[in-house]
Each structure stands twice: as structure tokens, then as C-alpha cells.
Amino acid sequence: MRDIALSGGGGLQVLLRELRPVVVQSQKAAHGALTSLFQRTRFDTTCVLLDEAERSKHLLNGLEKACKEALLGEDARALCPEVTVSSMLKEWGNALLKFFQFFEETSSKPVEQGVLYSLPSDWWDGALSDVTKPISRNDELVFEFLTLGRNEFICYFIRGVCLSFLKEVAQEGGEVSSVVKAVCEDTLVAESAALAIKSRPEKPLIRCEGCEKSAEELEPDTRFMVCSTCKAKLNFSLHYCSQKCQKDDWCMHRMHCGKKAVSKCLPGTAGDIIWGAPQLPAFYREQFNLAGGGPVDLADLGPGTPQFVRSAALQRQAAMLEADKAADYFLFDASGEPVRVVIDEHIMKAAFRFVRMNAMSRAERKMSEYFAQYLIKVMGAHPGLGRDVILRQFAEEYGDDVGEKLEVLEKKLPGEVLLERMANGLTKMGPRVMNLIQKS
Ligand SMILES: [Zn+2]
Ligand SMILES: [Zn+2]
Questions:
Q1: What pLDDT is recorded for position 389?
Q2: Is residue 305 in a domain?
Q3: 322 C-alpha vs ligand 2 centroid, how far in Å?
């Protein structure tokens, strides 16, 4: 940090004259580092696949560099509230990505033309509008000086973060380089995973347990109340939008109130097992033969519309799954009692439902042996179930050849469960994807 004398408009004018070309250089360097980062690391995919601690490390490196090298040093941080490690870590790294993309887009032209660039900010632009009386020439100069200081600091920060990432890629062996390598090896899968993570909600929704509406669907000033007995005794929050809703729901809630944490498990709320599951990119809609548009929710991956005549047993299975969308499958034990299967882990759930939809709706009826194999592994030891019982059910549902197909599969991949392999494959290109998704 250099010494700056702010006394007198004349001195300030001289200082500004010196400073402008310095900041132009600095923004050019930041823009160049950013371009290089995006090109060399496929940063738009890599950024969200990285572990949070890893992202945090590089952000801190950038911040440290900016505090050390920028003209105003650490003091400039007060001028850029948008540049904090905590804000950049939001949305699974997506906030950092958006900030970088915004900078790159908006600075391209000024950098090309070699003129001064100022990061657009409502907060900063509004700083002068608070002043009612006409501002003096000196105030104007001070404002320009601070704007330059702010932008110089932001440029140092961006350049510092980029160089920190790039340095690790160049050295190889680090976390960043292993993710970059995996992303380059299987770009399509990595991009899908990154898109899915970007769509992942940060928090579960709050819905009224009575009318089932979320904050967005209610009047803007609605304040949720929680059942105080459940909160006090169970530390469990059951939300209501009004006293009326709480009263109406009492006939249902009274049997559990204060005794057991039971909610309606409304979609998107903490009780909904897939609230934290990322959406799959829209192109899966075609692959899964789904109507409508936009990204695909796990809940959309039902039994599907059959392209063949389902057996009576498979019709019953489909009806049970349609009626209970949180269930992944129903097995029937030796005495014919249904056993409800729910897969907790999101990637596995997605792989299972993808395969299930194929088997239950595609004319080729492929893949039924895949999930027979998985269910035998995870449910085979359940009382009343076992390989034979499960295979008998699958034969009724999908045809007598399921057992044979399973044997072929087992020969092809001895000791492996194909569905697990599919799920693991998703995690390979981003070593942290699984952890990220499981942090719900
Ligand atoms: Zn309500
Ligand atoms: Zn209660």
C-alpha cells in the first residue's frame, strides 16, 4: 500500500491522472487471467464440482493478494461488499461463477478499447444519489478516486483467485487438477452433474402443513408459525400460515403432537426425501420420454407410460408407485406382504429411477435385471425376502427370462452391481459430487 495524500483538489487531480492507467492495466490483467482460467480449466463446470474447502482456499488467496497489492489495501474492502469469501461460496460455488462471468462479460469491451471499466453495482452507483445538494468538484474527484480504488481492488482479487487456481493446475496432483482432468475426460457427464448441482436448492422449502402452500404461493407478508408443543418437546418445526390452517389440521396432527415428529412430507420441504435432490438437465426429458419442458425432477421419474401391455403384476406395481411417489419399489415377501423400498442416496435414487422407468415403460423392457440385481443386494437379507423370492416377483412382473438375463449380467461383471457402478461413475469425474449432493 502506497502513501496517499488527499489534501487539496490539485494534488488529487495529479494522483487521478497517475492512477487511471494503472487501473486500466490492472483490469486488463484480471480479464486475461479470467479468460485463461475458463479456457484451461473448463471453469464453468469445474467450479461447482470442487469441494467447498478447496474453493474457499483459492478465494482467500485472491483476497490476500488484493489486500497486499491494491492501492487502498485492506481498506478497499469496505468499498466492495460484493467481494467476500462467504458470498462467493454461496449456491455451491455458483455465486462465484456468476460473479466471474458477469465481470468477464461487462469488462470485455472496455479492456479491448483500453478504457476504464467500473464493475456495475446498484449499491455503488446509488452512493452518490443520496446526496441531495449539488456535489462539489472536489467531491466528484474523491468519488472518482474511490471508484478507481474499488475497481482496482476487485481486479487484484479476481486475478489473485484465477492465478491461485491456475497455479495448482500447472503443478498437477492437487484437487483442482484432478477435477479438471476428470471433467476433460468425460465432459458430457461432468457437465450434466455440474448443471444438476447448479439447480440444487440450498434449503428445503417451508410449506403450511394445513393449506400446503409455500411462502411464494401465499400473501407476501405472511409469517409462518410453528406448532409450539412440537418445537418445545421434539425440537421439530411444523409450519402453519394462519391460525385457521392450524385449527383445520388439528384433527390430523393431534395424534402425533409432541410425541412424534410427523409431517405431511410436502414436496420440497425438509420432510420430502428428495427436497435436496438436484434437477436433471432438460435434455433428459427426451431421453426419459417425459412430457412438458424444463429440468427434470426426480419425482418426475415415475413408472412412465408403457409402450407394451403390462402384466397384471406390473400393473399393480405401477399403480402402487403412482400412488406413493416417495417409494422406489414394492417388493412382496414370501407371504405376499408388500415391503416398501426407499433409496435415500440421491445419485443412486436417480440411477434406480432411470432404470426403473426404462424397464416399466420401454417396449424393449431392457434393464429389469439391473434393478433386480440391486434389490437382491440391498433387500435380499430382509426377513421373508431373498434372491428366489425377489426373482419370482420379477418374473411375474417382467417375464420369465429375468433370471437368465441376470445370470448373463453377473457373468459379465463378476462381483459388481451394475447400478452401483452407474452411480459411482457419476461421482468419478467430480470426486466431491457425491458429498455435495449428500449434504442435505
Ligand atoms: Zn395455510
Ligand atoms: Zn404439534
A1: 96
A2: yes
A3: 30
Measured in Å, residue 208 CA sits from the centre of ligand 1 at: 5
Could you list the residue range(s) of the whole structural domain that residue 236 is in? 205-271
The per-residue pLDDT for range 138-196, each reduced to its tens digit, is 888 888 899 999 999 999 999 999 999 999 988 877 888 888 887 777 676 677 777 77
225 CA to centre of ligand 2 in angstroms: 11
CA 245 / ligand 1 centre spacing (Å): 5
- Please give the distance, rounded to the nearest whole angstrom, from the Cα atom of residue 273 to the centre of ligand 1: 22
Ligand 2 geometric centre to CA of 158 (Å): 50
Intervals of the chain under pLDDT 70: 1-9, 128-134, 186, 188-189, 278, 281, 283-284, 287-288, 364-365, 425-440
Are 76 and 219 in the same domain? no
Residues 362 and 243 in one domain: no
| Nearest-ligand number for the alpha carbon of 233 | 2
State pLDDT tens for residues 10-57: 788 888 999 999 999 999 999 999 999 999 998 988 888 888 888 999
293 and 265 in one domain?
no
What's the 266 CA to ligand 2 centre distance in angstroms?
16
3-state secondary structure string, the chain?
CCCCCCCCHHHHHHHHHHHHHHHHHHHHHHHHHHHHHHHHHCHHHHHHHCCHHHHHHHHHHHHHHHHHHCCCHHHHHHHCCCCCHHHHCCHHHHHHHHHHHHHHHHHHHHHHHCCCCCCCCHHHHHHHHCCCCCCCHHHHHHHHHHHHHHHHHHHHHHHHHHHHHHHHHHHCCCHHHHHHHHHHHCHHHHHHHHHHHHCCCCCCECECCCCCCEHHHCCCCCCCEECHHHHHHHCCCCEECCHHHHHHHHHHHCCCCCCCCCCCCCCCECCCCCCCCCCECCCHHHHCCCCCCCCECHHHCCCCCCCCCCCHHHHHHHHHHHHCCCCCEEEECCCCCEEEECCCCHHHHHHHHHHHHHHHHCCCCCCHHHHHHHHHHHHCCCCCCCHHHHHHHHHHHHCCCHHHHHHHHHHHCCCCCHHHHHHHHHHHCCCCHHHHHHCC
Nearest ligand to residue 247 Cα: 1
247 and 142 within one domain: no
